[in-house]
UniProtKB/TrEMBL annotation:
Similarity comment text for this entry: Belongs to the GST superfamily.
Gene3D superfamilies tied to this protein: 1.20.1050.10, Glutaredoxin
Organism placement in taxonomy: Bacteria, Pseudomonadati, Pseudomonadota, Betaproteobacteria, Burkholderiales
Name of the featured protein: glutathione transferase
Keywords, in A-Z order: Transferase
Amino acid sequence: MRIARLALEEKQVNYGLVEVDVFAKTGVPQEHLKRHPFGRIPAFEHGDFNLYETGAIVRYIDDAFPGCKLQPTDLKARAKVNQIVGILDAYAYQTLVWDIYVDRVVAARDGRLANEQKIAAALPRAIVCLSELNRLMDDQGFLIGGSVTLADLYAAPIFACFMQTPEAASQMEGCEKLIDWWQRFASRDSMSRTRP
Ligand SMILES: N[C@@H](CCC(=O)N[C@@H](CS)C(=O)NCC(=O)O)C(=O)O
């Protein structure tokens, strides 16, 4: 959900936020299932136009509203952005957030024991994710190019979680470009305005 909010913030679109607890013990609220039959977040409304699925939402926001363009027009830069978004969605989100952050940071916060086996199994996958992001980024200030793109917006919420884990320091060794990117991106207004 933070990705969609980041897109709105970066494009300086006014929006309203309806908070939904999809993990509620009583189940996903019925009114939310009308917006998102799979019971996930985010869902998005613009007038009488409704959408769910982050990829569809952020591309619609980019095309429908004025402001900075979140998808490069250059063919190869656009392909790289889409590649990084694919890596984050398919591999990094599960590994860095669910397998490491949730089992290390959220478990401790909830007074649960971490599943050390799950974390240990995730570490080699984490290294591939991090080293590939570090290799693919072109270091012009953002992950791809000299202005914010969907690649940054997909990566930032993942790093906001993962960088809280004690594992991050050793896993990020050798990923200097990525570390510098995170230090810059974490201080953007859009990040503080969407802090969970
Ligand atoms: N393919 C969906 C995935 C959305 C998704 O999994 N959202 C998570 C929160 S980031 C969620 O709603 N999880 C609730 C659940 O797994 O029950 C998208 O890209 O929007």
